[in-house]
Amino acid sequence: MTQAAPKPKVLIFDVNETLLDLDSMRSSIGQALGGKSELTTLWFSTMLHHSLVTTVTGDYHDFGKIGVAALMMVAQNNGIQITPEQAVTAIKTPLLSLPAHPDVKAGLSSLKSLGYKIVSLTNSSNQGVKTQFANAGLTEYFDKRMSIEDIKIYKPDLRAYAWALKQLGVKPEEALMVAAHGWDVAGAKAAGLQTAFVARPGKALYPLAAEPDYIVKDLAELVSILK
Q: How many domains does the chain have?
């Protein structure tokens, strides 16, 4: 897409699926679900769904705990027996050791060399994303890591983006939210941020939301736009 907005002062990246490849979890989730690895996507969307339930009801739970609960729900709905311990085993270690997508390190390196401030904003816990970045070799590229754990309000609640902007000391229009989730770019756009949708395989924009400023297939394309 063409340059439609002024160059941002800071780039805010979502983490899971945007930077880190969730496909490697298919085997562990599939194994826990009786070999039905195709249910991995349903598990992740169920986890996101219920993170919003906790935000709306004001009954906060850690993203990891919601992930375990979501896996047990998917299992129950598909007639599969699973214990909480089995759910934890299927999720915890694989989620913390997800590999970065092939385009990520080169893309982040290029954006950093262009002088952009690069931060992350995730629904995962502070310790979780710290471990994820260390295991994926991404720590060095980021100036700051932010987790909604600090405010206990999950994205895409507009308050999550407002809080992040306050931490960064920038106006909404001075920040660009980069995410592979239609719901995340919809939330950021509604909060006044510039947005870039990374069209990872199997990801779609929410048709009823305002269009993002940019749609890119990977971070290399984002780099070419932000040069």
A: 2
pLDDT tens figures, 108-162: 999 999 999 999 999 999 999 999 999 999 999 999 999 999 999 999 999 999 9
Give the separation between CA 19 and CA 42, rounded to whole angstroms. 20
- What range does the domain containing 208 cover? 10-21+98-226
Report yes or no on 79 lying in a domain.
yes
* Angle (deg, nearest 10), helices 182-190 and 158-168: 70
Report whether pLDDT(38) > 60: yes
Q: Give the global pTM.
A: 0.94
Looking at the fold, whether 219 and 128 belong to one and the same domain comes out as yes
Interval 206-216 mean pLDDT: 97
Residue 4 in any domain: the answer is: no
Cα–Cα distance list, 134 to 14, 42, 115, 128, 141 (Å) = 16, 27, 22, 10, 11
Residue 5 lies in a domain: no
3-state secondary structure of 201: coil
Residue 1 in domain:
no
DSSP label at residue 5: S
